[in-house]
Specification:
The protein contains 21 helices and five strands. It is mainly alpha-helical and about 475 residues long. The protein folds into three domains: about 130 residues, HUPs (Rossmann fold, 3-Layer(aba) Sandwich); about 120 residues, Serine Threonine Protein Phosphatase 5, Tetratricopeptide repeat (Alpha Horseshoe), CATH 1.25.40.80; about 170 residues, DNA Cyclobutane Dipyrimidine Photolyase, subunit A, domain 3 (Orthogonal Bundle). A five-stranded parallel beta sheet has the order 3-2-1-4-5, with helices on both faces. Helix 1 links the parallel strand 1 and strand 2. Helix 3 packs parallel to helix 4, helix 5 packs across helix 11 and helix 10 packs antiparallel against helix 11.
């Protein structure tokens, strides 16, 4: 850097891969110094949780989209790979940057990294400023009367709703004075799958990026939010918002979603409020999960309820593989797991069904399921993933009782009554009628033959009997008391 160049400020992009409603970016621009937009792909720092395969694919596409947006303003995204502290120390030394602006993290590895950088910046007389933006309400702002973290969702969400509304989101900047620093190539991060290229289904199903996130929110509000409370559990079609991966990567902020939905409620004359309020509760669950993770950093690995630490989980790799590949012999479970493998996503109802099946029918540890979701979900979010798996398993905050065991046949009949979801993802059963498709083993042999179904050959027999599995799970629960 030459002496006549003004020292820049760094905007460290983390999981806020957008330009609008980005307080760290807005503050950096307002400082009047040249802005250095930086993303660090760090899988080396101790304690860092490396993104799974589907998340890496999305991250590649999201970084490409963010870079294109910055190029439209005359700059670009600076990419680096390595330990965050080492990368920033190197850039600070080469650019004489005076400040680092970033959005605060609430994940364990994120907070540890922030403490490390705070020390680095103090040593180098550099301002390190953390900004809000990941959540509607920061952990510590929403507590019980005793000052503790809520462990039950409903009072937590009531407390959130009693707070002043989050400030309105800001728009994207129209102009940025960029610092001139060379970036590493995006391909050098090695985020895309190598041979075999398994990401074709993801490309077909999704368009990552800030613009796509805004479009998804607009479409959901315009077309589906009014029926969200009635249709959110339906398995066929697209009854939900599809916003979860965009929120996970920060291509849209929860504040943007909050204000857009509330604006739609205020402007509506067609009765969308009930559906919209139901949807906002799901944003609330995301908040709840982050608050839990911040207060209980062992959430991804250790049950919140200590009596579950010695739960008699089974070790059955064959059963785990059958679940992962959608070969359990239970059509609704298999449909959901195959949708996950193909598209990196499944509806929330499907997530509950397959999670219950793993931990209760198969008696396999919830950590195995969380690990598979982490690798295959495009919205693999550490807080949501951990809290939700513990909820299904009965060992977390506000958890569903372990003895509440979903019957996958009844779940299919209730939430996929015509069998369209199963037909889409389990095509070998496509010619079965709705009355038979969720329990093909009970169908008359003639109907199975006419539909081209040979149990044990074209489609697997159930790997476990529902009634026997239920009894086994309840006995396991008794052993913890």
């Amino acid at each position: 850097m030459s002496k006549d160049e003004k020292s820049p400020v760094i905007v460290w992009f983390r999981k806020e891969l957008r330009l609008a409603d980005h307080k760290a970016l807005a503050t950096a621009i307002k400082s009047g110094a040249p802005v250095l937009p930086l993303y660090i792909h760090d899988v080396e720092t101790k304690g860092t949780v490396s993104p799974g395969g589907a998340s890496r694919w999305w991250l590649h596409e999201s970084l490409k989209a963010l870079n294109a947006s910055l190029e439209e303003l005359g700059g670009g995204l600076i990419l680096r790979k390595g330990r965050t502290r080492d990368v920033l120390a190197d850039i600070l030394g080469k650019t004489n940057a005076t400040a680092i602006h970033a959005t605060q993290s609430y994940e364990p590895f994120g907070t540890r990294c922030e403490a490390d950088l705070d020390e680095l910046c103090s040593e180098n007389d550099v301002v390190f400023h953390l900004h809000p933006g990941r959540l509607l309400f920061a952990p510590g702002d929403i507590t019980t009367k005793e000052g503790n973290t809520y462990r039950v969702f409903t009072p937590f969400w009531k407390s959130c709703l009693a707070q002043p509304a989050p400030p309105a989101p800001s728009g994207a900047p129209k102009k940025i004075d960029f610092a001139k620093v060379k970036s590493d190539p995006l391909d050098s991060l090695k985020l895309q799958p190598s041979k075999p290229d398994w990401a074709g289904g993801l490309r077909k199903a999704w368009t990552p990026g800030e613009k796509a996130a805004r479009d998804a929110l607009t479409e959901f509000i315009d077309e589906r939010i009014g029926d969200y409370d009635k249709k959110r559990d339906a398995l066929p079609g697209t009854p939900t918002s599809l916003l979860s991966p965009y929120l996970h990567f920060g291509e849209i902020s929860p504040v943007q979603v909050w204000h857009a939905v509330n604006h739609a409620i205020e402007a509506d004359s067609g009765g969308i409020e009930k559906g919209a309020r139901s949807f906002l509760r799901e944003i609330g669950w995301r908040e709840f999960s982050y608050h839990l993770l911040f207060s209980f950093p062992e959430l991804p690995d250790k049950p919140l309820r200590p009596e579950f630490e010695d739960f008699p989980w089974r070790n059955d790799k064959k059963a785990l593989t059958a679940w992962q590949r959608g070969q359990t012999g239970y059509p609704v479970v298999d449909a959901a797991m195959r949708q996950l493998w193909e598209t990196g996503w499944m509806p929330n109802r499907a997530r509950m069904v397959v999670a219950s099946f793993l931990v209760k029918h198969l008696l396999l540890p919830w950590q195995d399921g969380a690990a598979w979701f982490w690798d295959t979900l495009v919205d693999a979010d550490l807080a949501n993933n951990s809290a939700s798996w513990q909820w299904v398993s009965g060992c977390g905050a506000d958890a569903a009782p372990y003895f509440r065991i979903f019957n996958p046949i009844l779940q299919g009949e209730k939430f996929d009554p015509e069998g369209d979801y199963v037909r889409t993802w389990v095509p070998e059963l496509a010619d079965l009628e709705a009355d038979d498709i969720h329990a093909p083993w009970d169908a008359p042999p003639g109907l199975l033959a006419a539909a081209g179904v040979k149990l044990g050959e074209t489609y697997p027999e159930p790997i476990v009997d529902h009634a026997a599995a239920r009894e086994r799970a309840l006995k396991a629960l008794e052993s913890t008391k």
